[in-house]
Design goal:
By secondary structure, the protein is α/β, with parallel strands linked by helices. The chain is built from twelve helices and 15 strands. The strands form four sheets. It has a six-stranded mixed β-sheet with strand order 1-3-2-4-5-6, sandwiched between helices. A four-stranded parallel β-sheet has the order 8-7-9-10, sandwiched between helices. It has a three-stranded antiparallel β-sheet with strand order 11-14-15. Helix 4 packs across helix 5 (171-184), helix 7 (228-238) crosses helix 8 and helix 11 (308-327) crosses helix 12 (332-340). The model is unreliable at 1-23 (pLDDT under 50).
Length: 381
Amino acid sequence: MQKTLTTTALGLLAVLGLSGAATADIVLGASVSATGPAAFLGDPEAKTLEMMVEALNAKGGINGEQVKLVLYDDGGDPNKARTFATRLVEDDEAVAIIGGSTTGTSMSILDVTEDAEVPFISLAGAIDIIDPVKPYTFKTPHTDRMACQKIFEDMQKRGFTKIGMISGTDGFGASMQAQCKAVAGDHGIEIVADETYDPKDADMTAQLTKIKNAEGVQAVLNPGFGQGPSIVTRNFRQLAIDLPLYQSHGVASDGFIELAGADAAEGVRLPGTALLVADLLPEGDPQKPVVTAYKTEFEAKTGTSVGTFGGYAHDAFLILTDAITRAGSAEPAAIRDAIEQTKGLAGTTGIYTFSPEDHLGLDLSAFRMLEIKGGTWTLVE
């Protein structure tokens, strides 16, 4: 059971700074979905940010200045996210903002931060967040288009040309469904069955039965996150569909295996990050020291397993603090410019190299194709 977070009526989670200091020199803001339907995303993100600020301040902060984190819980509500982003900019005077656990909340936040010219690093997956490029908006997760491409590459290797797709109708699911359709032809993939479900649905057997009966289907892809993919996975096995099942990076956590059940999830493939297979990374992998350190610290601090979503927050904080350090300034414009000059920065999600034309900074090599075997994650060779 997740630890209950003490909040104000407006969702203030915590304000962290140098213990005993009256004020902090650098104010970083955040709005994440620590409670509500997207809590599986926002809760580890909040805990990660709190942990990293505490550790950073204990080491002297950034260029000798302490960091104060003002962290709000938007509960996955885009309207609340917009309100908190406005408060962070106007009242809290944050020099940069991390957050947007979901696509919807990210889009609300960036509307505010772009107008205010304050750097924002999103923790959500949709490509629309950074394409087209917006001057002050960046993000740490791979895009949904990249996830489609990684999955289709694996399908190609296995000789699959006709697939069925069952997608959530939430912002993430709808966006990834559209992106997969856009790039399927590039990989010789034909979508011969295309079904959807509401994120609140408790049973998807009707849609899966249609896919099962579609002519020529060789594999099934489920773009979605939250409880939906776990239900799809259970129903898939209950219907004894003898086909490979692929999920999205939106469920790349141990929580998915627990909700779906290890038996049902056996053999499921999805694109994920190095963080989920930290122990399997070879010596010399540039991400190994980063993911190992984060995994060790997070699990010791929280008593819970590390996951992809907390890793997104880890990387956002790393990118921001690295940029402020190099800029020698906490002015928003200087931070933005320094982020765009980031090159070869190893995070838990990948190795980031930004530019004025690229506010994601990752390519397909950042994704690892994973398969669930024996209730745990394995690397697909």
